[in-house]
């Protein structure tokens, strides 16, 4: 955005109007007209145009997605705080709340992969501790193109290094996530990060600034010229002309964030009488945090003196100070007379903290700079009165007149096809990614990356939290509504397979340009499908983020609404993993296997594309199967449980053999092709022989015994028209070696 600034720093309100300079900041003619004629009744100056450009961006205002977001299922008996705050909170008993949220950092990461990923982690952690919670775990959900060039490989390595560097340095474990590869994400990768925290429910804080005369305190790093108007940048459609916009990307410092976090938590826990509100300075920087805090309180205004803002560069303009997205910064509202008490907490941690303004009477948001008033606008006009657009919706061309027949895999050698499947990057082990993460810091991680869900214990209690991130954009490309429901269902299956009951979700809604009717259709339909599934599983949406305009030179990504789900395990003895544990245990598939090939990994592997009508999905049946598996785990009938998803039943069987390198001797009346079907609502489980009768009585006809676990490092599966025959260590070598080999 520096080029915009250089052209317009001295621009008068008349020049901004006549030369339409506001367009280069992301405002439309219509929006500029609203500001000029309906809000201010005068021409806005350069700083004011900047404030509106940040706050009315999609990233801050959700102006294109608000009508869609209202369709989400957000209610639940355990929801303490739903969408609208820094993060959502769910009651998990014992006066404890689990706090979680996800954020996307797609465009910044595409421009500057290391810093883009790093600051994505830092930003989501601030959302968690601003609520009064201590972060206990993070996850990442990543989408890349298949790595073909050295530049592709470098990009992926830098993203992973950025996530790793921040989490490891600040001391918060990155406990897993999901990574998929598809050329639909070429030039527009998805970098989504989820963070989870724990808190006492009597310590909840919100981002509000109320009480005339109360002080506004700036905390953390000094403000520089990094990330200037990053919210508008993140809301733009991405193209080859924007690839070098490094001025819109922030720079992270996890060591500073650690100090800021500890000081903020001390204020929240030990000086709550002094604290009115607290909020992260995230997208749109100082303007978003201050205007939102002022607007939330209602009935008051705010005046800030920008000369008091800590600055690390000389000659910064009001525009730059307000719209910089320099990292590791928070904004607090503190009761008058208590400022020194709070400032001392930050001083003791070696963190910048300074009073920069006050809550005022009236509704005006005023900024002073070098003794002059450089902005004077109604606070609500920035924070809550952005225009809302009801976009046109139209079925995409590729969904019209779709062939309903399911793709039929061609398999002449089942074992070779399985080996090829295990080497597909979306299927293969992601250990080369997560081995760079510190997964055990804080010593609460019970199930580390590699199983269906990560599990983190809740100290001093016989309970734990299961955490997962999931979505298959290919399914949504073929049917956004059903694919949206499937994304929630797969997340729930991963939670259930770990021994937990789903509590709720957060999301990152990664879509294309909502002004294009076919792209808006995908967003709208996906949210409806997700909402139906959330209501079915009693797992409400409590937080999330919208990332639109994920296109490169007018080519959109697959619709990819990442689902981050948290579940509660009551009783640590119920924690379950996907690995077969003992030779002699019986292996069952729970749920019906049906043709599910359109949008599947085998269709992509054999044809290079996905096409056709997405296979059927029944939410009621999905819930039934999940409840059966939950009952089996709680009755201590299962040694292992693994969700069947990408790659189908045979892939899930192979993955279940890898943890202890135990083999299987199995047989089924399914065809070889059926073993690669991705039909939903299925688990592969293992049962001790002495529990066979009890298990079969519980599940009835919904489970079929396939055979047993054996102690000979050999995977043998007989189908009705062929067989799979492979040494487990060879299968494991293919699965573990595929990604490191491609990234060399």
TrEMBL record:
EC primary class: ligase
Binding-site residues, ATP: 62, 101, 507, 544
Binding residues annotated for Mg(2+) 2, in chain numbering: 127, 280
Residues involved in substrate binding: 104-107, 126, 250, 325-327, 547
GO annotation (BP), single: 'de novo' IMP biosynthetic process
Main location class: cytoplasm
Family stated for the protein in its record: Belongs to the FGAMS family.
Domain named Phosphoribosylformylglycinamidine synthase linker: residues: 16-63
Family matches, as InterPro entries: PRibForGlyAmidine_synth_PurL, PurL_linker, PurM-like_C_dom, PurM-like_C_sf, PurM-like_N, PurM-like_N_sf
Protein's name in the database: Phosphoribosylformylglycinamidine synthase subunit PurL
Entry GO terms, CC: cytoplasm
Enzyme Commission number: 6.3.5.3
Catalytic activity line of the entry: N(2)-formyl-N(1)-(5-phospho-beta-D-ribosyl)glycinamide + L-glutamine + ATP + H2O = 2-formamido-N(1)-(5-O-phospho-beta-D-ribosyl)acetamidine + L-glutamate + ADP + phosphate + H(+)
Gene: purL
Entry keyword set: ATP-binding, Cytoplasm, Ligase, Magnesium, Metal-binding, Nucleotide-binding, Purine biosynthesis
Binding site for Mg(2+) 1: 103, 545
Xref: Pfam families: AIRS (PF00586), AIRS_C (PF02769), FGAR-AT_linker (PF18072)
């Amino acid at each position: 955005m520096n080029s915009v600034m250089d052209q317009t720093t001295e621009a008068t309100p008349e020049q901004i109007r006549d030369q339409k300079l506001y367009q280069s900041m992301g405002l439309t003619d219509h929006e500029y007209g609203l500001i000029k004629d309906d809000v201010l009744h005068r021409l806005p100056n350069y700083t004011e145009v900047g404030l509106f450009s940040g706050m009315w961006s999609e990233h801050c205002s959700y102006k294109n997605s608000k009508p869609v977001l209202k369709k989400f299922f957000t209610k639940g008996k355990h929801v303490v705080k739903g969408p609208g705050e820094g993060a959502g909170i769910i009651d998990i008993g014992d006066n404890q709340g689990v706090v979680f949220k996800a954020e996307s950092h797609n465009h910044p990461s595409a421009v500057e992969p290391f810093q883009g990923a790093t600051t994505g982690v830092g930003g989501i952690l601030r959302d968690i501790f601003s609520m009064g919670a201590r972060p206990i775990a993070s996850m990442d959900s990543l989408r890349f193109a298949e790595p073909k060039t050295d530049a592709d490989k470098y990009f992926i390595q830098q993203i992973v290094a950025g996530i790793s560097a921040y989490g490891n340095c600040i001391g918060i474990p990155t406990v897993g996530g999901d990574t998929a590869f598809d050329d639909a994400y070429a030039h527009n990768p998805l970098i989504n990060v989820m963070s989870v925290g724990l808190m006492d429910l009597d310590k909840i804080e919100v981002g509000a600034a109320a009480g005339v005369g109360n002080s506004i305190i700036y905390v953390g790093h000094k403000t520089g010229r990094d990330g200037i108007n990053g919210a508008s940048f993140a809301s733009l459609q991405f193209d080859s002309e924007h690839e070098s916009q490094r001025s819109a990307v922030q720079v992270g410092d996890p060591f500073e964030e650690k100090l800021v976090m500890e000081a903020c938590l001390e204020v929240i826990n030990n000086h709550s009488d002094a604290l009115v509100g607290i909020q992260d300075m995230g997208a749109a920087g100082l303007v978003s945090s201050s205007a939102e805090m002022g607007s939330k309180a209602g009935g008051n205004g705010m005046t800030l003196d920008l000369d008091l803002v800590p600055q690390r560069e000389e000659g910064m303009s009001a525009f730059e100070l307000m719209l910089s997205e320099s990292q590791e910064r928070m904004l607090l509202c503190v009761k008058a007379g208590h400022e020194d008490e709070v400032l001392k907490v930050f001083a003791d941690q070696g963190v910048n903290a300074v009073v920069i303004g006050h809550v005022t009477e009236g509704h005006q948001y005023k900024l002073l700079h070098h003794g002059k008033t450089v902005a004077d606008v109604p606070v609500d006009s920035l924070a809550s009165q952005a225009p809302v657009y009801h976009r046109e919706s139209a079925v995409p061309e590729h969904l019209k007149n779709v062939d309903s027949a399911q793709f039929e895999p061609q398999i002449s050698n089942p074992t070779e096809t399985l080996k090829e499947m295990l080497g597909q990057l979306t299927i293969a082990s992601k250990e080369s990614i997560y081995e760079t993460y510190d997964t055990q810091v804080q010593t609460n991680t019970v199930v580390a990356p590699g199983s269906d869900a990560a599990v983190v214990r809740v100290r001093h209690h016989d309970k734990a939290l299961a955490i997962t991130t999931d979505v298959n954009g290919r399914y949504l490309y073929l049917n956004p509504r059903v694919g949206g429901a499937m994304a929630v269902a797969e997340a729930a299956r991963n939670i259930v397979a770990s021994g937990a009951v789903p509590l709720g979700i957060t999301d990152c809604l990664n879509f294309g340009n909502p002004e294009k009717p076919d792209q808006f259709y995908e967003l709208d339909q996906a949210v409806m499908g997700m909402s139906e599934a959330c209501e079915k599983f009693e797992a409400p949406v409590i937080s999330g983020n919208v990332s639109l305009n994920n296109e490169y030179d007018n080519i959109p990504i697959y619709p990819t609404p990442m689902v981050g789900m948290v579940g509660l395990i009551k009783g640590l003895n119920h924690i379950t993993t996907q690995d077969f544990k003992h030779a002699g245990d019986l292996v069952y598939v729970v749920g019906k296997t049906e043709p599910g090939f359109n949008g599947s990994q085998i269709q992509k592997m054999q044809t290079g594309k996905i096409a056709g009508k997405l296979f059927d999905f029944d939410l009621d049946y999905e819930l039934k199967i999940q409840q059966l598996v939950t009952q089996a785990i709680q009755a201590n009938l299962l040694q292992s449980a693994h969700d069947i998803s990408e790659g189908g039943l045979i892939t899930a069987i192979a993955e279940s053999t890898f943890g202890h390198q135990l083999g299987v001797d199995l047989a089924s009346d399914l065809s070889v092709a059926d073993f690669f079907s991705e039909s939903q609502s299925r688990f592969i489980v293992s049962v001790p022989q002495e529990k066979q009768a009890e298990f079969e009585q519980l599940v009835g006809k919904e489970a079929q015994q396939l055979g047993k676990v054996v102690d000979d490092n050999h995977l043998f599966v007989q189908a009705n028209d062929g067989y799979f025959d492979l040494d487990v260590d060879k299968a494991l070598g293919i699965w573990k070696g595929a990604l490191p080999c491609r990234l060399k």
